[in-house]
Each structure stands twice: as C-alpha cells, then as structure tokens.
Hints:
Elements: E1 8-10, E2 22-27, E3 30-34, E4 40-45, E5 53-59, E6 68-74, E7 81-86, E8 102-103, E9 109-114, H1 117-129, E10 132-138, E11 149-154, H2 158-168, E12 197-198, H3 214-224, E13 231-238, E14 243-250, E15 260-267, E16 270-276, E17 295-297, E18 300-302, E19 307-313, E20 321-328, E21 333-341, E22 354-357, E23 359-360
Parallel strand pairs: 12-23
Antiparallel strand pairs: 1-2, 2-3, 3-4, 4-5, 5-6, 6-9, 7-10, 8-9, 10-11, 13-14, 14-15, 15-16, 15-17, 18-19, 19-20, 20-21, 21-22
Amino acid sequence: MRFRSCILFIAILTGFAAPAEAEIRQFKDWLAVCDNLRNCTAYGFDTEIGAGMFLRIDRGGAPDATPKVTIAVDVPDKTTQLALTFDDPNLPGLPKGAQRGTRHEDDSYARAVLTDPAAVETFIEAARKAQKLVAKRTDAPGAAKSDTETSAISLSGAAAALLWIDDQQKRIDTVTALIRRDGKPASAIPPQPAPPVIVAAKSVAAPAPKTIPKAVLKEAKAMCEDDDGERKTEEIYRLTGKLVLYMFVCESNSGAYNYAYNLLTASDDKPNETRALELRLPLSIDKRQDIPAQDMTNATFDPKTMTISTFSKGRGIGDCGSESIWAFDGKAFRMTSFKMMPDCKGVPLWEWAPLYSAVMK
C-alpha cells in the first residue's frame, strides 16, 4: 500500500476547551503538519527519488515557542564530512565548513541543527531567496571531485508551508511569525490547547487463559472471512479480572510487510458475547486514508503499559504510512498518539510529526 501526498482535514473530537484542528497540507515540494495542540512541522525532501536528505522546521504551539531547524543527510560512513550551502553560496544561514553532524543511534543520517532564534531567522530569510539547499559529502578534506556525493532539497513551497503554520498557530502579524511578521505582541496569540489526559488501567497479575473459547474462534474466522484455515492466534492477554484480549493474524488479508490483525475481547464468564475490538480514531481522516476500526496493521500489545501499538507501512523500509498508540483505561482503548507520513521519502518513524497527542497517566 502506497501513501499519496494529499490534503487531510482532521477535526479533533475531544471534550477539551478550544482544541486545535490537526491537518496535513502539501505546498509544492513541501509538506506541513499541525497536531491537535498546534505543534507544527514543515518538511522539505530530497529532489531525487532516493532518500538522501530531508529538512524539517519544528515549532511548538505555545505563544513563546521558538522554531528549530534540522537538516538530515544520509551519511552511512561516520568519517565522511558534510558541507551545506544554498544554490546561491553567498546566502547566509547555514553552518560553515565541513562537519560530521549529530547522530541518532537507529539511522544513518547526520544532522545539522539550528535552535538559536537569530540563526533560525537568518536561515528562513535565506531559504525564501534560494531555490535549493545543497549537501556535499566528501571522504576527507581535499577529496577529489569523483569522491564527492551531492544531494539537494527543493525550497519551492517552503515559504507557503511556513506561512500556513503561522496561520495555524495564530501568529500572523505578530512579532513571532516566521513569514508574515508585524508588531502585534506574543500575548496576542491564544494559549496552546490543553492535551487530552488518559489514565491507563493497571496491568493485571492474573494469567491469561491457555485455551480459546469456541465462540471466539468462530468470530475470528468470520472476521477474517477465512474458509481455508489461514488464521492463527497471535497473543492472548488479560485486560481485567474477567476481560480477555485475543489477537489474531489474518494471513489472507496480510502482505509482505503489513500483517492484518483482528482484535477481539471476551469475558471469562460470558465467552459467547465475543466482541470485535473497535479502535475508533478521535479525529476524522480523509476516507482514502482511513484505518479500519477492526483490522489493525502490525498490532502489538504491551501488558506493562496496557497499550496497543499499530504501524501500517507504506513500503517495506517503513519510511511512510501511519502509527498509532492506544491505552486501555479499564473500559475501552483510547488513542494517545497518531502519526502519519504520506510521502515515502526516507524519513524514519522517529522523525514523523504527530497529528494527535494525549497525555497518558
């Protein structure tokens, strides 16, 4: 399953005052994301099909939040040096000279990070004038031209993406705006919405059943539309003193890297009242990208935290798709986190900006 770039209008349905509208928007070569707390991120991607480079600009939803710029370049060899320039090398705003950048233990990207407000402002002003941001990798100082590898990020759409973020965060015409700045003080910006709070149930010490009720097996087979036995039990967990969670893989509906799970619950004393677990999103997603309520992809359950996690991959390396986390509160599973990356551009999961965030206690 491939995820396409699209405009996703997401209305957050919570009971908290003045929640923000979470959304993903495409602006030419840039993608912008804002969550239900008005935390926003803009992404620029490598101009080539390969996943050699990406750029993200992050800003929290609080009125006094400062922006952060991260330039990530794929550099598998940690001894390789990196030089960053705009297509107009006279433009300021980028770290000078060769560098090796900071690293994440789980990927091969070297990152140059700007957090100083003045440095970020200089970078954004230069990016509005440039057409590309260019990264050159060299094996050592003075390496021959044949030893230099170059990647570039298109800046077409960057200003529009940042202006949209200003608008989402209510910063237009304030002194804090990234693009359309004027004299209104930061105090003119509304307070950041409070996050939803979910109190997770405590893990249950009692063991889960070792056998599966016939009613549960029958329901699992029906959900999978399984006529040839292509259905197996994956895990069994106890949710409460009586309620049990059964997780089945539906192999006939699974693919090479996406395994379709059916989740069912049943009480020890009423196994015939088996119910398909419905993990309903607390936000409304464009129907082309919706997640079936009863068919969760690559699902796992953590009995220590009482959470279900899912990860639907847009392609095998997992650089696009969606991820969700759900906490059991003693009665139902409630979403605590949702992320989506519609563009398959090499951005690892831990670099995806959230569309929905809650606090779990």
